[in-house]
TrEMBL record:
SUPFAM superfamilies: Protein kinase-like (PK-like). Gene3D superfamilies: 3.90.1200.10. Keywords: Transferase. It comes from the Bacteria. Residues 3-198 form the Aminoglycoside phosphotransferase domain. GO terms for molecular function: transferase activity. This is Phosphotransferase.
Length: 253
């Protein structure tokens, strides 16, 4: 039986090489993530095994939170333990693995330039918050939005889209998932977010006691950053809702 395939096209060979490198790194260092097989690397395209299913929904959050905690714990154990959040790591071929601080400082400055922040004081506050969050064990960020997970009819979870990969603190990519679920489907009750955070920490701490450190205050700091970083995408990519980083009270969603 032939395997169905999906081909993704890129503007440059460099983007192809980057996405393929990220796929290989995740397959080696984050094995809890189930990735579609990469079958062909072309000059300006990548061809993957095609996975049929639906994007993630709100009810998938507990399972996805546990999956991310497991994946981040595995990556820390196998490769990211010595990595620092304020400087690039290196892939096996010597290419830089983007750091946490630099790309987000640049993105926040662009948000001010494009009118998503009211003034330089707001930018300074967010840059200070970014620096505050750059501590603790290093995980990775893979843009965990609902479209980047495929749930099959059998309930298997596949992770797709390896275009972007940077270092990030534990819990940062979980916050991206929570933020984008809210943008896609509407507000989440506070206990739902608390349960997801608990599932994340429980999965991470199984790899090492030092990894289950993300508390609700820290998660809220990440959510505040994502509120601004995702602002340009409102009304696109299925993001139909506006939101505040603070969750709604129980029962109001």
């Amino acid at each position: 039986m032939s395997v169905r395939q999906f081909t993704k096209h890129y503007e440059t060979p460099g983007r192809v090489a980057s996405a393929a490198r990220h796929h290989a790194w995740l397959a080696e260092h984050a094995p809890p993530l189930r990735l579609p097989a990469l079958t062909v690397v072309g000059p300006t395209s990548l061809t993957y095994e095609r996975i049929d299913g639906r994007p993630a929904r709100t009810e998938d959050l507990p399972a996805l939170a546990g999956l991310l905690g497991d994946a981040h714990g595995a990556a820390w154990t196998t490769d990211l333990r010595p990595a620092a959040l304020n400087r690039p790591h290196r892939f096996r071929d010597g290419i830089a693995f983007g750091d946490y601080i630099g790309p987000r400082q640049a993105a926040l400055r662009r948000r001010l330039e494009h009118g998503y922040l009211p003034d330089r004081a707001a930018l300074h506050a967010l840059l200070t918050l970014l620096e505050k969050t750059a501590e603790g064990p290093t995980a990775f960020y893979k843009d965990s939005n609902p479209r980047n997970f495929i749930i099959t009819e059998a309930g298997e979870i596949y992770t797709v889209d390896t275009d972007d990969l940077t270092l990030a603190p534990m819990g940062y990519d979980l916050a991206k998932l929570i933020a984008t679920l809210v943008l896609t489907y509407g507000p989440l009750p506070a206990p739902t977010i608390d349960s997801a955070l608990r599932a994340y920490n429980e999965a991470a701490v199984r790899h090492d006691p030092r990894l289950g450190i993300t508390d609700r205050e820290r998660l809220d700091d990440f959510l505040a950053l994502h509120a601004v970083l995702t602002a340009p995408y409102a009304g696109r990519n299925g993001y139909r809702y506006r939101w505040s980083p603070r969750p709604c009270p129980q029962g109001s969603a």
